[in-house]
From TrEMBL:
Gene Ontology CC terms: kinesin complex; microtubule; nucleus
The Kinesin motor domain, residue ranges: 36-448
Residues that coordinate or bind ATP: G123, V124, T125, G126, S127, G128, K129, T130
Source organism phylogeny: Eukaryota, Metazoa, Ecdysozoa, Arthropoda, Hexapoda
Keywords noted in UniProt: ATP-binding, Cytoplasm, Cytoskeleton, Microtubule, Motor protein, Nucleotide-binding
Domain of life: Eukaryota
Compositional bias (Basic and acidic residues): 615-630, 691-703
Protein name, UniProt field: Kinesin-like protein
Similarity field: Belongs to the TRAFAC class myosin-kinesin ATPase superfamily. Kinesin family.
SMART domains cross-referenced by the UniProt entry: KISc (SM00129)
Region Disordered, annotated ranges: 615-640, 685-713
Subcellular compartments: Cytoplasm, Cytoskeleton
Main location: cytoplasm
Record organism: Drosophila lebanonensis
Entry's Gene Ontology molecular function annotations: ATP binding; ATP hydrolysis activity; microtubule binding; microtubule motor activity
Length: 884
């Protein structure tokens, strides 16, 4: 169908969704041939001739709608005229038969051939939906006509009642003849007792039904004559989105119980627990329908509703199963049953609630109707979108479950079958808007594709046509028996085979004058058949041999496969054992993992606690650090203040010390200046004697020396230093000359027990005479000593022994004595290795030149004096030696 219109239409939105792999079911559906939903349009006649209409049927497939404003203003412009194309458009004068033939006849054919079909009428209230579907006494609708054709088709092939019995799960069971007979008897009893639910009356008892059944239908061709058939009907109503079984025996209950929709083993939706009534004639079927109608009316009276506000579904289910080889009984195997269904749906009026001006319950009803029709619309829309989007893209989820009507027919849209819709139109101008909506829906619906049904036919390998052939054979036998032919009882021919070999069996009526000729013909025909049969037999033998060979090969393969299977089973067992062992291991490991996890969580908790404690400690430490820092700052500032103070004090002291030192220096300088003055004036001042030397000399020595000093000649300008008492210096004999070639004689004057030096370097004293005491002057002069050496030893504060050798020349004095002029000091120091070597060498300016460490007992001034005197005491000699 195509709508041609000048009005702008909203383009269809295609949402891009991610690609998804096809499911098996989708792939199956893709591969199947598909048919669109067949949409027909039926225009009902106007109620009165004066009614305006904007609808025009152009031809058998096209209809146009003109908006009312154009009509009212008599505009003849075809600009805004909308055109719709349907599979077929039925004009207002179309008969019920026309509609049935075009729309429903193919569906009945589907039914007979084991395919499912759905037919629904759609339109606003009063548009003729019920009229089309059911009709009335005079104008039978689609439903009774379908029954007519169906029963007309299967009349000779119907199974006895109760051979097929509903299993209440949307399937059927096959009862044996005996069981079926028992059931029939029970029903009969109930009928006589008047307690039967469906105590069907005789056809002529109800004039309404009788008139309806008076049509002469045409049977459907192509029926499987070897099958047995049974027809079951259900009649349900969907009201306020609840499903009611109109054939249910509600007993004392006045109201019907709502039912649920379920899916059976073959993914077919069905109303759970719905009453399925087996009907053997059209009358029975219509009687059941009428009873359902009565229940419906009763229910509506109770609920104060109208029939047009509910959806009615009348299901005709055809059950068929193959007969046995004799063609007399149904094969007792429920898997051979084929069930097909024709659902005739009379939908509620599709008008919007705004137009009906409903309130209260009516509004709710209208809401439910609209909701269910809206869901139907949405489902079909999504279905169309899914079908138009390329495969591999994830389809939209279709909301079948949102309403009962769509949920119930889900398998028609999702699965396979044929779906047809009759759009009923009331052409009056008042319904224009609603008709437009209906047309839009119809337009969209026509684009939906439904997979074509392919019924599964179970081939039991039985001869086709067996039923008819056996029937004919039986009749022939009966005829022969009646004629008294004795061989008749012994004839046992599988006529089914013969019957199936060729064209129809010729008529065997022998009452015509050409009987002899016919017999001749028949004989010829049979001879041909026998010949043909022989050929077929031989052919079949060859085929049987081939087949046997194939079977043998297969058996071989089978054997091989069995051995393979056995080995695979052994491997599988091994693998299974291994996997069991592994599973056990895994279980053990899992349990140990659990234990470890527990301990881990414990440890984690401990760690958390410890880290908390640590944090606390760290906080405390930081606090303490802060405090320490504060203290440090405080003390450093104090220290700075103290050090400043000390510095200042020290500087003051330093200044005082410096001043003292400067004072001393000044005194020293003064003394030196005096000494230099004395020296310059050639007056020898009396110098302070060296205590150490003096101490070493005995009283006698001192006396001797003094004596000699007293007798000495006054000396000239030389500035000798004398080791003599300050009250006088002996005068040296100026004429005395020492023989230099004779060599020196030393007089060593030392302590009684000197500390051995123990050094490599020993004082060099050639021709030495050692004395411990100078008792007599002769000791100095008599010996002829020319050199005198005074050895003094003492220990310093660190315990080191210091040996000093005071050396001098012995010079005879004028008075016959001798004087010693000291001119050299050797200082030897023995350091103890146990004492610290870091002791500082005194930095005395006068001794540093000598490189000697002077004992504390020898003062600086005394050494200076000795040195200077020794230097001055020797003529022309000013050597300075220092050894360590
Ligand atoms: N094609 C037709 N020819 C003659 N009469 C018709 C035709 N269609 C409908 N009618 C008549 O119109 C009236 C309303 O029709 P019908 O009850 O079938 O409408 P409806 O769409 O089923 O309404 P509701 O939604 O209420 O069930 C009936 O009296 C019916 O006889």
């Amino acid at each position: 169908m195509k709508a041609v219109s000048s009005s702008v239409r909203t383009p269809m939105r295609v949402f891009k969704t991610p690609r998804a792999p096809l499911t098996d079911r989708q792939r199956e559906t893709v591969e199947k041939p598909r048919d669109p939903v067949h949409v027909y349009c039926r225009v009902r006649p106007l109620q009165s001739e004066g009614d305006l209409t904007g609808m025009r049927v152009k031809n058998s497939t096209t209809i146009t709608l003109t908006p009312p404003d154009q009509l009212l203003h008599h505009k003849q412009s075809a600009q805004r005229e909308i055109q719709y194309i349907f599979k077929h458009v039925f004009q207002s004068d179309s008969t019920q038969q026309d509609v049935f033939t075009a729309v429903a006849q193919p569906l009945v054919e589907n039914l007979v051939r084991g395919r499912n079909s759905l037919l629904f009428t759609y339109g606003v209230t009063g548009s003729g939906k019920t009229y089309t579907m059911t009709g009335n006494l005079r104008h039978r609708g689609i439903m009774p006509r379908c029954l007519d054709v169906l029963f007309c088709t299967i009349s000779d092939y119907q199974a006895k009642k109760f051979v097929f019995k509903p299993d209440r799960l949307n399937g059927f069971e096959i009862l044996s003849d005996e069981d079926a007979l028992l059931e029939r008897q029970q029903e009969m009893n109930q009928r006589f007792a008047g307690a039967g639910r469906f105590a069907f009356r005789r056809k002529d008892s109800d004039p309404e039904i009788a008139s309806q059944a008076s049509v002469d239908p045409r049977p459907v061709l192509g029926i499987d004559e070897d099958n047995m058939f049974s027809v079951f009907v259900t009649y349900i109503e969907i009201y306020n989105n609840s499903v009611y079984d109109l054939l249910e025996d509600s007993g004392i209950q006045k109201t019907l119980q709502s039912k649920i929709i379920r899916e059976d083993a073959n993914r077919q939706m069905f109303v759970h627990g719905v009453t399925e009534v087996e009907v053997k004639t059209v009358d029975e079927a219509l009687e059941v329908f009428q009873m359902g109608q009565k229940r419906k009316r009763m229910g509506h009276t109770v609920l104060n509703s109208e029939s047009s506000r509910s959806h009615s579904v009348f299901n005709i289910r055809l059950v068929q199963a193959p007969t046995d080889c004799q063609g007399e009984h149904v094969v007792q195997d429920k898997h051979t049953i084929t069930v097909s269904q024709l659902s005739l749906v009379d939908l509620a009026g599709s008008e919007r609630s705004s137009r009906t001006k409903n309130t209260g319950i009516r509004l709710r009803e209208a809401g439910n109707i609209n909701n269910s029709l809206m869901t139907l619309r949405t489902c079909l829309e999504y279905l169309r979108e899914n079908q138009q989007t390329p495969f591999g893209i994830a389809p939209k989820k279709i909301p079948y479950r949102d309403s009962k009507i769509t949920h119930m027919f889900k398998n028609y849209f999702d699965g396979e079958g044929q779906v047809s819709m009759i759009v009923c139109i009331n052409p009056r101008i008042e319904d224009h808007e609603e008709n437009m909506q209906v047309m839009k829906f119809a337009e969209m619906t026509q684009e939906v594709q439904i997979a074509r049904a392919t019924p599964m036919k179970t081939d039991l390998g039985l001869t086709p046509g067996r039923r008819k052939a056996n029937k004919m054979f039986k009749i022939a036998l009966n005829n022969l028996n009646e004629l008294g032919v004795p061989e008749a009882k012994e004839i046992d021919v599988d006529v089914g085979l013969v019957y199936s070999l060729g064209p129809d069996f010729p008529s065997y009526q022998m009452d015509s004058p050409e009987a002899a000729m016919k017999i001749q013909e028949l004989m010829q025909y049979l001879e041909q058949r026998i010949e043909k049969r022989k050929k077929l037999r031989s052919n079949m033998d060859i085929k049987c041999n081939n087949f046997r060979q194939v079977i043998m090969n297969l058996e071989k393969d089978n054997l091989q496969l069995r051995t393979e299977l056995a080995s695979l089973k052994a491997v599988y067992k091994q693998e299974r054992d291994r996997s069991t062992a592994l599973e056990n291991k895994v279980r053990i490991h899992e349990s140990s993992i659990d234990v470890l996890n527990n301990s881990l969580s414990k440890r984690e908790r401990q760690i958390e606690e410890l880290s908390q404690k640590l944090n606390e400690k760290e906080n405390m430490l930081t606090q303490k650090e802060h405090e320490k820092e504060k203290q440090k700052k405080k003390f450093s500032s104090k220290l700075a203040v103290e050090s400043d103070k000390n510095k200042r004090e020290f500087e003051v002291k330093l200044r005082e010390q410096r001043a003292k030192l400067q004072e001393r220096m000044r005194i020293k300088d003064e003394k030196l200046r005096l000494v230099s003055n004395i020296l310059q004036s050639e007056d020898l001042p009396s110098l302070p004697r060296s205590h150490s030397t003096e101490d070493m000399l005995g009283d006698k020595d001192r006396g001797a020396m003094t004596a000699r000093t007293e007798s000495s000649v006054p000396v000239t300008t030389r500035t000798d230093i004398y080791c003599t008492p300050r009250h006088g210096v002996a005068a040296a004999n100026t004429r005395h000359r020492r023989s230099r070639s004779a060599g020196d004689k030393w007089l060593e004057h030392r302590a009684a027990n000197p500390v051995p030096l123990g050094t490599i370097m020993q004082p060099y004293l050639k021709n030495r005479k050692s004395v411990t005491k100078l008792t007599d002057m002769k000791e100095l002069t008599g010996h002829g000593a020319t050199k005198y050496c005074l050895v003094a030893q003492e220990a310093d504060t660190d315990g080191d022994v210091e040996t000093k050798l005071y050396k001098g020349n012995v010079i005879p004095t004028c008075g016959g004595g001798a004087q010693v002029v000291f001119d050299d000091v050797e200082c030897l120091k023995q350091k103890s290795p146990v004492h610290s070597p870091t002791r500082k060498r005194p930095s005395n300016g006068n001794l540093s030149g000598l490189g000697a460490v002077v004992p504390s007992t020898v003062t600086v001034t005394s050494v200076q004096d000795v040195a200077s005197r020794c230097n001055l005491g020797i003529e022309g000699h000013s050597s300075k030696k220092s050894k360590m």
